[in-house]
Design a protein that fits this description.
By secondary structure, this protein is an alpha/beta fold. The protein has one domain: Metallo-dependent phosphatases (Purple Acid Phosphatase, chain A, domain 2, 4-Layer Sandwich), CATH 3.60.21. The chain is built from 7 helices and 12 strands. Strands 3-2-1-10-11-12 form a 6-stranded mixed beta sheet. The protein has a 6-stranded mixed beta sheet with strand order 4-5-6-7-9-8, with helices on one face. Helix 5 runs parallel beside helix 6. The chain is globular, with a radius of gyration of 18 Å. The protein starts with a strand and ends with a helix.
């Protein structure tokens, strides 16, 4: 059985690529995946009108969706708002700002928040990952079944050759914790460029995957999204780019999937037979 996830990121309602976004909606509606995972920055400046537009678009998808906030989903131009109620409007219009969870017999997905409204550094838009948050994600993943996926906005480790940095405080430790906790995938956005690579922890079968933007704020690559297809032994990630009238494959990654206890036992039984 194949599990299909459509990963969208950095839609930036208020600065969205309207044609590409409508094409995604039509494609998802006509061929629904098991889940749409949106890895942050669903708005451009955290204005209520942007959240309202995002909510209306989400309601038209017709399939399960999980979201996590990004730094642009705070009141971007209000220091007071970012300090006192950074995710109030996000929670009102979109959903929980952390630890939203999807569980199915073949899939477990947990979201956590790496965005902050303010930080004790000049560039508050960069990410933070708390150790306790990573441990909590692992607890929820371990209680689930199937493909284990964590989603957040900022890449926890820097992307080689990426157009910008995440500089996530605590990101390296969170990556290690998630890998040792059995996460198969860590899905992120923020850099507006697709990527995929294994993490150098545990058994090497935890993969960091990033999606492009669906906004007009491109950074050297076209607007796009990821299609993730997970089978028993492998995970395929296809980054699709907008070619003005349609999407076409830009890059594809293939990853060996970790063998869990149930699949190890099934393999042994098949070999014995």
């Amino acid at each position: 059985m194949t599990v299909r996830i459509v990963q969208l990121s950095d839609i930036h309602f208020g600065c969205e690529n309207a044609e590409a976004l409508e094409a995604v909606r039509i494609r998802v509606s006509e061929d629904p995946p098991d889940l749409v995972a949106i890895t942050g920055d669903i708005t451009q400046a955290g204005y209520p009108r942007e959240f309202a537009a995002a909510r209306a678009w989400l309601d038209r998808l017709g399939c399960p969706v999980i979201n996590t906030p990004g730094n642009h989903d705070t009141p971007y131009w209000s220091v007071v708002g970012r300090t006192c109620w950074p995710f109030r409007d996000y929670r009102r219009w979109i959903g929980p700002d952390s630890f939203d969870t999807v569980t199915r017999p073949d899939l477990t997905v947990v979201a956590f928040n790496t965005a902050r409204g303010v930080q004790p550094r000049l560039n508050w838009s960069k990410g933070q990952a708390r150790r306790d948050d990573a441990l909590r994600v692992c607890e929820r993943l371990s209680a689930g079944q199937g493909l284990k996926v964590a989603i957040c906005h900022h890449p926890l480790m820097e992307v080689t050759g990426g157009p910008m940095t995440g500089r996530v405080w605590g990101g390296v430790e969170a990556s290690r914790i998630l890998a040792e906790g059995g996460a198969d995938l860590i899905l992120t956005g923020h850099v507006h460029s697709p990527f995929g690579h294994p993490l150098p922890y545990a058994d090497g079968r935890t993969y960091a995957v990033g999606a492009s933007t669906l906004s007009l704020r491109e950074r050297g690559v076209p607007a796009g999204y990821n299609l993730i297809e997970a089978e028993d032994e492998c995970i395929r990630v296809t980054a699709l780019g907008w070619a003005r009238t349609h999407f076409e494959p830009q890059r594809t990654w293939g990853f060996d999937r970790r063998l869990g206890p149930a699949r190890v036992a099934a393999g042994r039984a098949a070999n014995a037979a």
